[in-house]
Batch of 2 targets.
Target 1
Amino acid sequence: MNREVRTVVYDKDLKLEAYQFEGIMQKFPNHFHDYYVIGFIEEGKRHLVCNNEEYILNSGDMIVFNPHDPHACEQVDGRKLDYRCINIQPEVMQEYVREITGQAYLPRFTAPVLYQSELVPSLHELHQIILDEQSDFCKEELLLLLLDQMLKECCDPGPPEPAHHVTFEIRQLCSYIESRYAENITLNELSEISGISKYHLLRLFTRQKGISPYRYLETIRINQAKRLLEQGLQPIDVAVQTGFSDQSHFTNFFKKLIGLTPKQYSRVFNHGPESARLQESVQ
């Protein structure tokens, strides 16, 4: 019988999450995170779409997502996925970058996939130390050295230039969605605000942001839901506060994007001060 294991650990020293998914077949729809994701494929083969570009991932390939990079993935040839990653919040990444470079900025990594990367062994070692919940400074040393290499090899030197490819109308719509995500936003509203017809709005938004307006809204809701769950709120209350029509819709969409149910994710952060770990095994 197939065995699926999902493990999540929050490391309070490094202030980051470590995920390990073993034996999963789950398809992840187009979405984005408001944090950095640095991961690698242990086993399996996946089809990835990131920023409208397609990739085929194999064992030993490294994945790097910037905040707000839209991405979706699914298995290839029915192969199960073994995958590990660390998630780093922007404010934490900025502090690490300041430590390494002397400048506090948010890097923009240039490629979402590094094929057969020489950085994978270091990331694997760091990830395993986090999963083993070791408390010595070896893990911080590994993380700083890994990020130093990534800053040198995987992104342009120095603070990135501001992006100008998103028009004022689309930036305005993003701000509107981000400030009113808990409300019942309609396509008519977005059309009136932007002065763009609904059909052309959908095409323009998706082309510029790499994700449709409604998927953008639901992703904003999920990212906010994560913060509320981390604070100890109950999933039923989080569903209401983030604008989902009911708890079932919230639970289903949360698992589609995060790989865990809201209740599972909440347990990572609400086991008491000495523990921040979840391991779920399904036969």
Target 2
Amino acid sequence: MPTAAEIAKLIDHTLLKPEATHADVEALIAEAAELGTYSVCVSPSMLPLTVPDGLKVAVVCGFPSGKHLSSVKAGEAAAAVEAGADEIDMVIDVGAAKEKRFADVESDIAAVRTAAPAPTVLKVIIESAALDDDEIVGVCEAAVRAGADFVKTSTGFHPAGGASVHAVELMRSTVGPDLGVKASGGVRTMEQAEQMIAAGATRLGVSGSRALLSGSTPGAGY
């Protein structure tokens, strides 16, 4: 089993609540540095951030609905990179996935990829709990074709739910070994984190990182 320190290095320490303040984000950064997480993940309006060396900055795009024009997502991603984001977590148009318009999903992702080229890391949030298996496979294949670096289960805001072991396993088997898989939404305990990693996750989106890493009883959250 991975140690708590090893799991911390896979965590995007996350604060995406609409009421989050700059003081809240400053506290998030301090906690991330203390816990040794990989990054902080915040809303684009929180940029720019001052973070210690080694701590990455991830920023959401088209969040949380994904129902933005591709040009708007692309502009949002480009502005975030200009303001210091290392990684972009974009939301697909889940309705397009439900209609099996995977070419449109690919085009949407490709627009953000063009706006935020490497070395910026692009993660694609697919809302796996709202999709059936064929739809999960279709959007993951679209993400591969569009040049994404990760596929990600969930925003943590959808009523259908967050990450599941089944979804992570299916996403991993679809994208193969070369893309990352991020499990997010409802990952609140060490046991859940270990299950997601065993299923193929290489990154975790967690808001209650301290509770997870310490093994204490977590509260509700992302």
